[in-house]
Amino acid sequence: MATIREEDLVASIADALQFISYYHPADYIENLADAWRREESPAARDAMAQILVNSRMAAFGRRPICQDTGTAQVFMKVGLGARIVSNRSLQEIVDEGVRRAWREERNPLRASVVSEPLFGRRNTGDNAPAMLHVEMVAGDAIEVHVAAKGGGSENKAKFAALNPSDSVADWVVRTVETLGAGWCPPGMLGIGVGGSPEKAMTLAKLSLLDPIDLPQIRARGPASKEEELRLEIFERVNALGIGAQGLGGLTTVLDVKLKTFPVHAASLPVGLIPQCAADRHAHFTLDGSGPAVFTPPSLDLWPQDISVATAAGRRVDLDRLTREEVATWRAGETLLLSGRLLTGRDAAHLRLTRMLEAGEDLPVDLRDRAIYYVGPVDAVGDEAVGPAGPTTATRMDKFLEPILSRTGLLVMVGKAERGPAAVETIARHGAAYLIAVGGAAYLVSKAIKSARVLAFADLGMEAIHEFVVEDMPVTVAVDAAGTSVHRDGPARWRRPVREAVPA
Fold first, then answer.
1. Does the keyword 4Fe-4S apply (predicted)?
2. Taking Cα atoms as reference points, which of 109, 93, 91 lies closest to residue 17?
3. In this structure, are 315 and 401 located in the same domain?
């Protein structure tokens, strides 16, 4: 019987969560670099370059790859012969590891978990509790997979109860086409088939912990029906032309993962969970000999010839924005923003709109200003702010009409597409929507020279800040005429591919 100390388990979980906050798995970097070299779409290629440069910077600086440091996902296989020396529950032990990771002074992570999902939604302040899954297995060791999943990709999870005669491939491809870019491609798709609804979703998430191997399968040819299905979905999804960040391109997914389980004869439950460009996961085993040790990837892993094409962007002074200038911007154009940039996410927008409805004065003047949809990581050392990448803009769509019509706001910055009604609203008000690259949070933060909280400090990372930025790279996603790169880009890069044959 192996005796495993509580402290070894806590320390190993904390170290794993810190490790994956700033180190991509080597297989992701290798495959993203290959996709970057093959990419023909200039916009998608530059987005991939920003993700790769950001990844290298995060690894060197040991700061988060993404400002959304995710929820802690812990999958444990506990050997029946293993004994954990503790008076606490397994959930409590794991949560202690999460708290330790998120409160690490050298690399504090962003607390994103709220304690009450329906009403108060108060931030727990330490990102606990973890999403813990436990399986009792033979043996006397504890095997642990740790992952950190951000809200952008988790919000795109889908489930369907298909008929046994339905095509899983057809459903996945149709579903991915509706997801937009809020899950930050290029990434992976995790698919779980069988069992029950909750089993299928768990299988989908577990599949994302497996190494990337589809390039090898493509090279040698599929060796099973499951590999044939994965390859078919891979080819069909990439043929949609969605591309990196939804800008249109050759690569939307680097791999398609699949796990299955026996199922009722009348059922075909299918879960789909996308994995974003912040592909964060690690694995370790405890056998009683001490805490886990994690070996950093070689810093030679990242392409040495990588560069970001922002030098040619049009420079914009945010302190002198005019509606006439915004009207000259064109969808797909690169801008370099300098000056004062406000921030605001879901909670801030909700408060602002409620204040407008109540006839109250707003704490911040939004007229002729730009607002960045972001919840930054806390700063350390001489940083003005920690990693500060964009959040999914579609969540702010329902606030757009009252904000634009009643405040005079001119520009929004976020990630992914806006809905059709939001695009029409932006055009009607002569405003513009810009995107920063999701998955490049540390790179973006280097353009932020100072930061201060202006309003709603109680909202923590969702408070309204004022950043002073210098040459912050963005792309015009929706211009004042209503042209959208997320509509036109994928259409340009879409290509025909064979249809699936129903199972």
1. yes
2. 109
3. yes
For residue range 353-377, what is the model confidence (pLDDT) as tens digits? 999 999 999 999 999 999 999 999 9
Residues 321 and 211 in one domain: no
One-letter-per-residue 3-state SS of 405-471 = HHHCCCEEEEECCCCHHHHHHHHHCCCEEEECCCCCHHHHHCCEEEEEEEECHHHHHHCEEEEEEEE
**Cβ-Cβ contacts under 8 Å for 224 (sequence gap 6 or more):** none
Question: pLDDT for 320-344, tens place per residue?
Answer: 999 999 999 999 999 999 999 999 9
Helix 6-22 to helix 42-61 angle, to the nearest 10 degrees? 140
Note down the domain range covering 108: 1-24+65-148+281-288+299-307
* C-beta separation of 387 from 377 below 8 A: yes
SS3 call for 131? strand
Chain segment 427-468, per-residue pLDDT in tens: 999 999 999 999 899 999 999 999 999 999 999 889 999 999
SS3 content of the chain, % helix, strand, coil (to 5): 35, 25, 40
Residue 129: is the preceding peptide bond cis (ω within 30°)? yes
| Torsion angle of C-alpha atoms 399, 400, 405, 409, degrees rounded to 10 | 110
- Do residue 140 and residue 106 come from a single domain? yes
Q: Are 500 and 236 in contact (CB under 8 A)?
A: yes
The answer to whether the beta carbons of residues 254 and 188 sit under 8 Å apart is yes
Cβ burial, residue 426 (10 Å; 0-12/13-18/19+):
buried
- What is the C-alpha separation between 185 and 255, in angstroms, rounded? 11
The answer to whether 230 and 305 have CB atoms below 8 angstroms apart is no
CATH number at residue 100: 3.30.360
Give the predicted TM-score (pTM) of the model.
0.93
Claim to verify: residue 131 and residue 176 sit in the same structural domain:
no
